[in-house]
Structure formats: structure tokens, C-alpha cells
Write a structure and sequence with these properties.
This protein is mainly α. The protein is built from 13 helices and no strands. The longest helix is centred in the C-terminal third of the chain and has 34 residues. The radius of gyration is 26 Å and the shape is elongated.
Length: about 325
């Protein structure tokens, strides 16, 4: 594209659109129709320039012009409780459901890695000795040791808030860093599974694996599922960089990135629930079976939420992305 020729051919349309926007309150019917047509044309021009001959100054001017025109055409829209409800009942569960082919295998492979690491550590004393000194290992695994007192070492409310913050940060990192060709996500996942595997191995070698599972399962089922969803979504985002499919790479990343941002908000709510369970249920005096039952119910509730509500919303066309009127206009691409 010859940018100078393109600008010369369409500058009059942009100037006319700007003039109409400056006096939009006093437009006639014909002028209002003209404004809509010029808005659509300018949005198309902006997409062409972004994809073919990116010029920062021109893109900035046209982006501002298109934004003003969109506001004039569609009206100013404010978020409401209806938007929150729609996000929780349609957008978020549909986005999680659509990415299930990424996070379900991620969950299965990660769990297998944690179990294998636990078996390796638990059956090899030399590996255990490389982790910590024998006295330190005994302090970790003995009745009333650090593995048990960890969950009751702080007031429940502050502990739950700390856990929620840490897990939300880990999930956000998986979602954001996935764009770097998936590698950071794999590393974050491995670190999480290594921590779980060390706990399994050390407690099983001390003959207290049942105690460890009784402590980790109440909150860990939902917590790890949220991490797996974030990791799977991050991997999907990274793969979009490699293979955007029939969409342009810019469009694909924009669509998947917006959906991932929404998932970050939804997963923060899920991790809030798991943090509350970890802060109030895990260290409680409830029997082990009762604590694990609470964790299983929370996990099954989340899966039902994703596969029932999310599946229904996804089949109806929901993707977790912004509504069409809120997205930037794009040029169609050939399949």
C-alpha cells in the first residue's frame, strides 16, 4: 500500500467525519446516516493501515476518530450488574469450557508428573537427603510438624488472604506469560508440581501420606484446577502466536487475549473460594472425611458450572470475548 496515496484518497472522508462528530447534537437525519457510513469506512481504513502500512501517528489519529464515532453511533455504555451476571453465567464458564482441550490434558499430565516425582522422592533416600538434613525432614513430617502446622500458623482470615493473593498471582502469570511461546507456563507448572511431589514423597516415606492428602485435598482440588485452567489457557495463547489459524495473528491474539483477561478475573474468584477453604476448613477440627468431602463438593460444583453452564453458553456462540459492538472493527480474512 502507498500510504501517501491512501491518505490523499480518504482524508476528506476523515475530515468530514470529524466535522460531523463536532456537531453531532444538531445533525439532520441524512447527516446522521452519513456519520454511520463514514464511521464504518474509517474503521475499515484503520484496520487496513494497521495490517498493511502501520504508521503510529496516523493510527493514533484514526483510532481516536473511530472511538469517538463508535461512542456517537452506539451511545455511551456503562457496566452494570447485568454485565457481571452475564459474565459469571455465560462469558467466564464458556471461556473455560472452550479451553478444556488444553487444560484437561494439562491437569492429567501435571498430576502424573507430581505423582511420579513423589514416588521417586519417597523411594530414594539419597534424594531425600539432598532436599534437607535428616533432622529437618523429621521436623517436616512428624505429627505436629511443619507440614501440619503450616495451615494453622496464622489467623485464618489473613492466611486465606495470603494464599489467595499468591495463587492469583501464579494464575495470572500463567495467563500472561503464555504468549511467550508457552515456555514460562511450563516452568511455573513444573515448580508447582515439584512442590506437591516433594510433599507426597517425604510424607509417604514417613508413613504419613494419608495425613498429607487429608490436608491438601480439601483446598487443593479446586486450587490446582484453577491453576491448570490458567496454565492451559496460557498454553493456548502461546500456541496462537505460533499458529493463529485462519485469523490474522493480530486478530487472533486480540480475541484470545481478551478472553484470557476475563478468565483471570473469573479464576481470581475461584481461587478466593479455594483460599477460604484452605484458611478455614483445612486447619479446622473437622474429621478428615468431612474436610475432603467439602473439597470434593467444591471441585464437582466448579466442574458442573463449567460443563453445564459453560457448555450451554459455548454452544450458543459465547466465547468469553467482548460483545461485537465493543470490539475494534477488523478486515475480514480469507479462510
Amino acid at each position: 500500500m502507498d500510504l501517501d496515496v491512501f491518505v490523499s484518497a480518504h482524508r476528506a472522508e476523515w475530515d468530514r467525519l470529524d466535522a460531523l462528530l463536532r456537531r453531532q447534537r444538531s445533525l439532520t437525519g441524512a447527516e446522521a446516516d452519513e456519520l454511520v457510513v463514514l464511521y464504518q469506512r474509517t474503521a475499515t481504513h484503520l484496520s487496513l493501515i494497521q495490517s498493511s502500512a502501520p504508521d503510529p501517528q496516523l493510527i493514533g489519529r484514526l483510532s481516536q476518530l473511530v472511538a469517538r464515532a463508535r461512542s456517537a453511533v452506539t451511545g455511551t455504555r456503562r457496566a452494570s450488574w447485568r454485565d457481571v451476571t452475564r459474565f459469571l453465567t455465560h462469558g467466564f464458564p464458556a471461556a473455560v469450557y472452550r479451553s478444556r482441550h488444553w487444560w484437561v490434558p494439562t491437569a492429567l499430565i501435571s498430576t502424573a508428573v507430581a505423582v511420579l516425582l513423589g514416588w521417586w522422592i519417597g523411594t530414594h533416600p539419597e534424594v531425600q537427603s539432598s532436599i534437607a538434613a535428616p533432622d529437618e525432614l523429621r521436623d517436616l513430617t512428624r505429627p505436629g510438624g511443619e507440614y501440619e502446622t503450616y495451615y494453622s500458623s496464622h489467623p485464618a482470615a489473613s492466611f486465606a488472604a495470603q494464599v489467595w493473593t499468591n495463587n492469583a498471582q501464579a494464575a495470572a502469570m500463567c495467563l500472561v506469560l503464555g504468549v511467550f511461546l508457552c515456555l514460562p507456563v511450563v516452568w511455573i507448572l513444573f515448580q508447582n508440581m515439584l512442590n506437591v511431589g516433594v510433599g507426597i514423597g517425604l510424607m509417604s516415606s514417613a508413613g504419613r501420606l494419608d495425613t498429607f492428602l487429608g490436608l491438601i485435598l480439601p483446598h487443593g482440588l479446586l486450587e490446582l484446577t484453577a491453576v491448570f485452567v490458567a496454565a492451559g489457557t496460557g498454553l493456548r495463547l502461546g500456541w496462537t502466536v505460533i499458529d493463529p489459524g485462519p485469523r490474522s495473528r493480530r486478530t487472533a491474539l486480540a480475541e484470545e487475549g481478551r478472553a484470557a483477561l476475563g478468565m483471570a478475573i473469573g479464576l481470581a474468584l475461584v481461587l478466593f473460594v479455594s483460599g477460604a477453604i484452605e484458611g478455614f476448613v483445612t486447619p479446622s477440627g473437622l474429621p478428615t472425611w468431612a474436610r475432603i468431602t467439602i473439597g470434593v463438593v467444591a471441585e464437582l460444583t466448579f466442574l458442573a458450572y463449567v460443563y453445564v453452564l459453560g457448555g450451554r453458553a459455548a454452544r450458543a456462540g459465547e466465547t468469553g470475548d467482548l460483545d461485537a459492538v465493543e470490539r475494534s472493527a477488523v478486515v475480514p480474512t480469507a479462510a
